[in-house]
Design a protein that fits this description.
By secondary structure, this protein is α/β, with parallel strands linked by helices. It is built from 4 helices and 3 strands. It is elongated.
């Protein structure tokens, strides 16, 4: 028996569709296991200097078929985005108290204070005094102090 031209076209297309269906099924299984798909990550700007680059590199090595999408967010915005399902994971600096989120401690950081060269001069006597007493323990911010954004 010999196929007609129409039969050859259907057979060729059928083989293609069966291969595509098999690939789709395999991809679906990998996605269900977290090995493929899209992972949306929220982070604060400070995260890019510590934990995040190393985590991303290791994750990409282990899961090359997962696309990563990054969103820079303030802490409160990350929490809202997590709750709304707009991001899958967020890296925040302080523990949130939202019962809808699962938290996992991933990093202890050592905070360092940096003083500019003018801090030792007369233009900033409070900084100079603090520099001289830097071995003393630090307390929370003074509620009477003014704040500014850099």
């Amino acid at each position: 028996m010999q196929l007609t031209e129409a039969g050859r076209l259907v057979a060729s297309r059928s083989r293609h569709l069966i291969a595509e269906a098999s690939a789709t099924l395999a991809l679906t299984g990998r996605a269900a296991r977290g090995e493929a798909g899209l992972l949306r990550i929220g982070f604060g700007i400070a995260s890019i200097f510590g934990l995040l680059p190393d985590v991303v590199q290791r994750f990409r090595g282990a899961h090359p078929d997962v696309q990563l999408h990054f969103a820079t967010c303030r802490r409160a915005d990350q929490i809202d985005a997590l709750v709304r399902g707009e991001i899958d994971v967020g890296f925040i600096r302080h523990r949130a108290t939202d019962d809808r989120l699962q938290m996992r401690h991933v990093l202890d950081e050592r905070l360092v204070a940096a003083l500019g060269p003018q801090a030792a001069g007369t233009r900033a006597p409070a900084c100079a005094r603090w520099r001289q007493n830097r071995s003393s323990s630090l307390r929370g911010p003074d509620p009477q102090a003014s704040t500014t954004t850099c």
